[in-house]
Amino acid sequence: xxWQEGGQCSIGLMRAxxxxxAGAAGAGVAVYRKLRRVPGPAEDPRAEELRxxxxxxxxIVEEREEFEAGETPVDEVTGPExxxxxxxxxxxxxxxxxxxxxxxxxxx
Length: 108
Prior knowledge:
rod-shaped; 3 helices
């Protein structure tokens, strides 16, 4: 140990001073953090527009679901087979007639 004149040790006094300074610095940092005002995140100017669009899309989805609730799904549609067969024949006849018309009069 380092002895001063008069037989006293100076290391103990320095440790006490360093401890007091470290404690004061720590308290200062704690007070600074406590009193420092952290600004909140700034409001994005596009945020309100995005909220409005989100609300609109929600209403559109609700309207669509309401509209689709009134419709009969394709899987549940049942019709007489004869009606389907008649429509199929009519479509084929129209197709054949259109093809004949495009070919023009026969050379006979």
